[in-house]
Fold this protein.
Amino acid sequence: MQRFVEANMEALLGVRFLASEYGTGPVHAGRIDSLGLDANGAPVVVEYKRGTDPGVIHQGLFYLSWLVDHRGEFERLVRDRLGATAAAQVLWSAPRLICVAGDYTRYDVHAVREHRRSIDLVRYRFFGRDLIGLETVATATGRPTQGRPERRTGPVRAGRERIEELAAAADEVLLGLGDGVTKVQRKKYNAYRRLQNFASICPPQRTKVHVYLSLDPTKVDLVPDFIRNVTGLGHHGTGDLEVRLGTEKDLERAQDLFRASYAAA
């Protein structure tokens, strides 16, 4: 299972693979199963267990603590594997632990939801000899839950304030798509993820809010000045499908795409 996930880590977990069985030195005297960097630049520890093991969370948190205490060593690893730009943009405010196991107990699920770290419990299942499925059992953001912004009513405001309200409305819609949505704030975009990113919102432009979705643009009907394929084009955030929001009607039209990207993640 570990070899399979490491060989397909970006497709399965949305994490770029860095190292396997990474030694933590003579003091901690352990080996981290897998190290990676997610799409938002957050460090990731991945721990695997064949079946149900009550120690997997504690073991993973032990290694996550080591990682936070050895930032320089991790950044050197990122620089060696992914380059200086990636190393300079490591997001230390949101390190993650992903546990991949055959199953979890209800006590594991409760412990994760009470914890201050960002933790994902992922269960694997085999379907015959050729198929495998990963299912997110529980997710913790590592931060207190924030209430969703209250939608303003009344006359539509003009200019910058109107666009900022539209961005806040899009934020509310994305956070409300279902359980387990985590918002990750970066300097130049906000990412919305389950196990992987499914949407990103960039700071509002003068007349538009740009939302990027993790959908295949070749399978979506593109609409001029509304839906665009940005594969291979530089932009902030993650995702190859750009949705431009200029009005609340645009936001309503985009919600089926939001739901599709959430489901795909």
Q: What stands out?
A: Residues 160 and 206 are 6 Å apart (CA to CA). The longest strand covers residues 131-141. The radius of gyration is 20 Å.
